[in-house]
Amino acid sequence: MKIGSIRHVRGFDVARPISIGVMLGIMLPLVLLPLLSIFVFGTSKGLGVFWSSLIAPDAVFALKLSMVTSFWATVFNVIFGLFGAYVLSRYDFWGRNAVIVTISLPTAIPTAVAGFALLLLWGKYGMIGKFLSEEHQIMFTPYAIILANIFVTFPLAFGVIKPVFDTMSRSLEEASATIGATRWQTFWHVTLPSLRGAIVSGALLTFARAVGEFGSTILVSGNLAGNTQTAPLYIYAKFNEGQIEAANAIAVVLALLSFVIFSVLFFARDWLEFEAQEA
Amino acid sequence: MIARMKLAPDTDQLHVSWAPDREKQTGVAASVVGISKRFKKARVLENVTFDVAEGESLVLLGASGSGKTTILRIIAGLEQPEQGRVILHGTDVTDLPARERGVGVIFQAYALFPRMTVEKNIGYGLRIRHRPRKERRETVDRLIKLVQLEEHRKKYPWQLSGGQQQRVAIARTLAYQPQVLLFDEPFGALDAQTRVHLRREIRALLKQVKVPSVFITHDQEEALELGDRIAVLNNGHLEQIGTPDEVYNHPATEYVATFLGAANLLLGVITQGEVEIGSARLPAEKETKRFREGQSVKLVFRPEDVCLSRDANLPEGCRRLANGVIEEVSFVGAYERLNIRLDLTHRVQTANEAPLYQVTINTPEKMTGVPIMVTRPKPEANAAKYNAGDRVAVGLTSFSVLPNYTLARQR
Q1: How far is residue A206's CA from residue A200's CA, in Å, rounded to a whole number?
Q2: Which chain B residues are within 8 Å of A198, Cβ to Cβ?
Q3: Cα B308 from chain centroid?
Q4: Domain B262-403 belongs to what topology?
Q5: How many contacts (CB atoms, under 8 Å) link A and B?
Q6: Which entry of A44, A132, B158, B235 is 20 to 30 Å from B217 by CA?
Q7: Considering chain B, what is the average pLDDT of its residues?
């Protein structure tokens, strides 16, 4: 045995513990410890403080507002993503690729730019906004938050559903047609069930992203506590006011929520992949 | 549409004809008339016409790219022809969408709905037609029994073998009483052994349900076994349609002869009721009747239609072609294969013969003889053994004479 060879010492691979250690060493301070500190700080002053910060009216309102606006943005984007994926994978037309690129564009646009763009379009002096009467203005209302959420999460559901459409064998739909089904029956009984997994994961991704949206909402919502303040805005506002406990309580809730959503996505993967392999 | 969907009232019987009543009146279940189709300038089908009779199974046989799948898709309504009509039981359905045609397609990979159980797959046709629950259940029960999948009715497609999936696919179409069943390469995805087993099973099933069917395949053995008739397609063109016996033993074109099994091909001219090939003359009074004197023809015969003899006495019914030398003897499974070189020397042209019809042998084969392939079944091979180098008399029991349109082409 050569002296310089330390790669295998009696069947023990030194590279293994070293590389795992390095990986964990990078991950811990960057990802795991920040998450952990939320939970540590959140409960450091006792569960009572945590609970009372959580049930403060503005906090509850911010959480509710985040859920509701994210929900409607998700509904819209899943339906549109489904429709868009259907059209773009079933029909070939001039400029199709340009449309696909455009749909995916919001992923690359900074969210602050997105919010600013919405203001320029829908704001009081914006291109569309100037035609709306004073009481129908939508900027600085919950609708503006939904609009911003839609813009920012637009490509997510589409991006998950489209590949499934593309790889789905046409013969299933053709079989359904020769059996005598109308287009709608085929879509409802054959196409949609095959997309179940993609729709669920697309919706979860969209929702998770929308709940955490900050950059665009802070511009279009007006950030009025108890009125247009979403949960991330609440965290930011309370932090600025020095109420760390209040900010922390909401942060814990949001972190837990994304943890739950992610677990569902991760552990449901077998179930989600079922149709990918069958279709 | 509604009339076609009605099921036979006697639900207990399995030997019911599943075909609609209308079938019995005409005798022709489906017709394809003058279908032409091109994809982006490439011609796929050129004026294809054929009928499928009641209860008949017709096989469309052709290499890949011959247009057979396109015909199937046109009959099903999944593709529109440029010209021509599709007629199902006397009704022109060319302009009807697939769902209103009432044809059953068994797709290559079966295309069973992955999220539905066996019974839901089979019941799908009646479900989307909003048939009463009782009728749906009865039909599904009967069909599951027919295709012998009773113990699998609650399973999903991925839990079934290829053969079982195929039976589900067939039952799924039978549920709505299709006018015609279309099978797209039904055994393509299966291994050789299952394939043979399954096509017998399907053949038996079709005899039972009596629904006219169209199969497409590139496998000649499959075509011969499955088809009441075979239509041979080449490059979007229908070469020949006929019973397996007709297309195999009396091929209309060189393509049919060579695609369906092996064939020997010799070029010759017609001379006084005989086919003249080089120095040999094959008596063929009947076969040459439709040709002009001096016309250039192809003589096509199968390896198994050759008879051999050590002396000049060929068996009864065997017409003498030429002498030859055995070049090689080999065993190929059930057969013995002989490569023989025929003594066919250069024929001297007569004075008044047009040079157009000249058939010369001026390749190296002029010296060595023209090669042909002969096969003999084992008993025959054992009864009269030949070795390489033996000289034999060569005769033909059966052959076809086809016009040779490629003028003055040299062999």
Answers
A1: 10
A2: none
A3: 30
A4: OB fold (Dihydrolipoamide Acetyltransferase, E2P) (2.40.50)
A5: 74
A6: B158
A7: 83
CATH topology classification for A45-278: MetI-like fold (1.10.3720)
The fold of B2-103+178-254 is Rossmann fold (3.40.50)
* pLDDT tens digits, one per residue of B79-110: 999 999 999 998 999 999 999 999 999 998 89
- Write down the domain spans for chain B: 2-103+178-254, 262-403
Find chain A residues with C-beta within 8 A of B105's C-beta: 174-175, 178
- Nearest residue to A182 via CA among B100, B359, B355, B394: B100
Q: What is the pLDDT of residues A169-213, one digit of tens each?
A: 888 999 999 999 999 999 999 998 888 888 988 999 999 999 999
- A172 exposure class (CB count in 10 Å sphere: 0-12, 13-18, 19+): buried
Nearest to A109 by CA among A161, A154, A146, A143: A154
Cα–Cα distance for residue pair A169/A279, rounded to 1 Å: 6
Mean pLDDT computed over A135-156 = 90
Is A175 near chain B, with CB under 8 Å? yes
CA distance B94 to B105: 17
The ipTM assigned to this model is 0.76
Question: What's the pLDDT tens digit per position in B225-258?
Answer: 899 999 999 988 899 999 999 999 888 888 898 8
Question: Which of B255, B214, B260 minimizes the C-alpha distance to B235?
Answer: B255
- Position B359 pLDDT exceeds 60: no
Cα(B362)–Cα(B345) distance, rounded to whole angstroms? 9
pLDDT in tens, A39-88: 888 777 788 888 888 888 999 999 999 999 999 999 999 999 999 999 99
From CA A156, how far away is CA A70, in angstroms rounded? 13
Q: Is A201 on the interface with B (CB under 8 A)?
A: no
One-letter amino acid of B20: P
